[in-house]
Amino acid sequence: RLTVLLTRGSMSLTIAATSALMAISIAIEGKKSIVAEGAVKAIVGLLDIDNDTLCMKLLQLVTNVAEDPEGRNQLQAALPKLRKIQSTTPSTVLERSAAHSVRQVQFRTRPYSELPPPEM
């Protein structure tokens, strides 16, 4: 339902729906639900809109959803848009947030699982 509100309303409604999804995506089941409902495609589509408030919320939403393996897989399509935001925004806050989102979407492996076991 929130996915519909992302794309079929005023800018204030889009921002509110993004904020709600951002809060929902904090929990693991929230991330999985967002991915299962097909919201990632709509989220990626919104990254082209030139609105700093919306962009900031979308970047946090992308970062949250990217913690889910399937979400991360679906978000690969967002990488060019995230890099564009990072390289063209005059806002340092948005630039850093975009860089963090890029890192999360590109995440492949946990470094600690590749470390040798501790010596006893």
TrEMBL record:
Top-level taxon in the UniProt lineage: Eukaryota
PANTHER family per the record?
RADIAL SPOKE HEAD 14 HOMOLOG (PTHR15599:SF1), RTDR1 (PTHR15599)
- Name of the protein in its database record: Uncharacterized protein
